[in-house]
Amino acid sequence: MKRVFSGVQPTGNIHIGNYLGALRQFVELQNENDCIYCIVDMHSITVPQDPRELRKHTLDVAALYMAIGVDPKKATVFVQSDVPGHAELSWVLTCSSYTGELSRMTQFKDKSKGKESAPTGLFSYPVLMAADILLYDSNVVPVGNDQKQHIELCRDLAIRVNNKYGETFVIPEGRFLKEGARIMALDDPASKMSKSAENPLSRISLLDDESKIKKSIMKSTTDSEGTIRFDIANKPGVSNLINIYSSFSGMSVEEIEKKYDGCGYGEFKKDLVQVTSESLKPIRERFEDIRNSDELIRILKDGAEKANAISEKTMARVKDRFGLGIGK
Ligand code: TYM
């Protein structure tokens, strides 16, 4: 049985990019693997957060995990800051990382672009992410394609420590969906769909109602050619919509192109609204019940306890290898 680990930041507006790129895999993987799913609140404070909103979003993401089908009887679900090992291991890994490799991370470059000085937490974000993964001896990490570079860094750090201090960490593998699984912004298909983009119509959040879904899709950017054809280079907007259609309906790109041969964008978009709404409706319905139940806190406390037990074992091994503390 493989150990699977992944996390989502509680920054609100969890969207269909997060779902199709990562969250949906969480459910598929839980039946045959030992899965640990985390709400990574310490990653969220790499940018300013309102404390009350942060806690609300943390519980929202936990409820969303369950609403999409994560089963706490099968998978461990917990909040990152409830397990001290994440911060502890992050420091140890910081001391094995280099400013050069962290400066090359595209996410850091994007987020610090044009600024003379950037928050240190933003810079070391990928080290904390590596700690999350390595703390649990994870074999598989389901994430969206935008996280490839971070997974590569995590592997590099693990290999570096193993080479220097002896076998300490399991080397994890990323689990990415096919290249097209990156969902782009609906108003600008050159940027990825994001939780923080100013225009709410640029994304479809998992809890959006049908009228918001309709508005976002009907207003989405396409092109003037007027044919439903998958061609990322020349038709990025339409290709993104085909991708979303395919991911929700299970139809292949070819089947979609065939079905809409000769049709205009209006008709295609109308159907996409329906396909998307039908897929998200059950999630929205389950979410409220779970979010308002006392059960949620109990699940997160149980999860933190289980995660902590694994984390303590790894930290004892790490401290031993590095000669930290007074030993046994
Ligand atoms: P976050 O919360 O920004 O994103 C959560 C997941 O959604 C994926 N994703 C996308 N996939 C497809 N299209 C998009 N437009 C899109 N936007 C986001 C992300 O790849 C991610 O899988 N750094 C992580 C959080 C994290 C983590 C970890 C993940 C912290 N520690 C350890 C795995 C293991 C992140 O990007 O979260």
Characterise this structure.
By secondary structure, the protein is mostly helical. The protein has 2 domains: 3-175 and 294-322, 3-Layer(aba) Sandwich (Rossmann fold); 200-288, Tyrosyl-Transfer RNA Synthetase, CATH 1.10.240.10. It is built from 13 helices and 5 strands. The strands form 2 sheets. A 3-stranded parallel sheet has the order 1-2-3. Strands 4-5 form a two-stranded parallel sheet. The model has no long low-confidence stretch (mean pLDDT 96). Bound molecules: tryptophanyl-5'AMP (TYM). Tryptophanyl-5'AMP is lined by residues 5-9, 17-18, 21-22, 40, 43, 129, 132-133, 141, 143-144, 146-147, 150, 181-183, 192-193. It catalyses: tRNA(Trp) + L-tryptophan + ATP = L-tryptophyl-tRNA(Trp) + AMP + diphosphate + H(+).
In short:
This protein has 328 residues and is mainly α.
Write the SSE topology:
Layout: E1 3-8, H1 16-29, E2 34-39, H2 41-44, H3 51-68, E3 76-79, H4 85-94, H5 99-103, H6 106-112, H7 120-134, E4 140-142, H8 148-165, E5 173-175, H9 210-218, H10 236-249, H11 253-259, H12 265-291, H13 295-322
Parallel strand pairs: 1-2, 2-3, 4-5
Bound molecules: tryptophanyl-5'AMP (TYM).
